[in-house]
Amino acid sequence: MTEGPTRTDFDQYMIPTYAPASFIPVKGKGSVIVDQQGKEYIDFAGGIAVNALGHANEKLKQALNEQAESLWHIGNGYTNEPVLKLAKQLVESTFADKAFFCNSGAEANEAALKLARKYGHDNHGAAKNEIVAFTNAFHGRTLFTVSAGGQPKYSQDFAPLPGGIKHVGFNDLEAAKAVIGANTCAVIVEPIQGEGGVVPADRAFLQGLRDLCDQHDALLIFDEVQTGVGRTGQLYAYMHYAVQPDVLCTAKALGGGFPIGAVLTTDKFASTLSVGTHGTTYGGNPLAAAVGNAVLTEINQPVFLQGVQDRHNLYVSRLNEINEKFELFKEIRGLGLLIGCELTAEHSGQAKLISNLAAQQGVIFLIAGPDVIRFAPALNIPEQDIETGLARFTAALEIYLRKE
Ligand SMILES: Cc1ncc(COP(=O)(O)O)c(C=O)c1O
Fold first, then answer.
1. How far is the CA of 380 from the centre of ligand 1 (A)?
2. Which of 182, 267, 279, 404 is the one with CA 20 to 30 A from 15?
3. Residue nearest atom 7 in ligand 1 by C-alpha distance
4. For the structural domain made of 71-299, what CATH number should be given?
């Protein structure tokens, strides 16, 4: 047993923004984590879609250690080799011509929204400042991104909020058409709403937004913070939909567990953020960029991405078997290794309880709202870990149903 801080220390020393589990993970290898008591858990949560290559991946360790021996941080008065390599890799693998680096998903979205506002101001005047976003969206926790997010519970206590943001229903193209106009500078959308319940966009909806943005010279921003870097079985979800954004925000899995975020865009829009208009101390930090390079090199290969799709198929067939037995899920949905199981009305609100019972059985996963169980495991999770984790999940469901 490890001596160390306890869960009680959290309540004593931490500002209570989180309600962490009662156990404290201390190490991880691949898709297995171990807590202070030595208990093992199969990890279907992946650090909220971050640990794309699992825990303590050898290639990422090597990239980080090598960079740690040379240059840790230099600041943006200088550029550095890892960030130049990463920018090149991202540009060569996507629609983008240019990249901007930051440290998180919220910062990437914040930068994208600022870029869109400035593009509107510079090219069409101050009135072109409206942002269209969608109900149930999640874009991060800065004041701008929480305002663009479509869940008032995250923003209402922080008023006054930045103005000029309109929300309409996700996948409701007619409603979007009604609000997108000459004064719209940007439309921001998740190709799959992650926190909002693992709800994929319809292709026609995204294509419709693309057309409306073209019509009004507004920027189409895809928030791929959760769906990016192989999560859906394509490098980015826009490739799956064959709808190209003007700006793409990526973070989470890009660092495989090391904090990094990026904004990708085309030459047309990149010049808007001219010298001095935006920045961040750690953006493009050599340690983060070195890890990002190793992550992308590993993931952006057809056989790796096919592996994500194969794992999706295994999950979905096993989840269907589980559902035939228990009839708990109204729907099993998602792409690649972002999978949501929505509970039936009878079990509404029980996702958290089920996840607590599952942790007792030795498997952890996420929820997306009170009714959706969400799986976002490492993209290279071994098949055997999927089987073991889902067997433990099944055991938890049996306990849940007995308790009812
Ligand atoms: C779609 C989406 N956008 C933005 C964010 C915010 O990212 P971060 O927590 O790194 O700021 C998240 C985080 O869950 C997300 O899922």
1. 22
2. 279
3. 105
4. 3.40.640.10
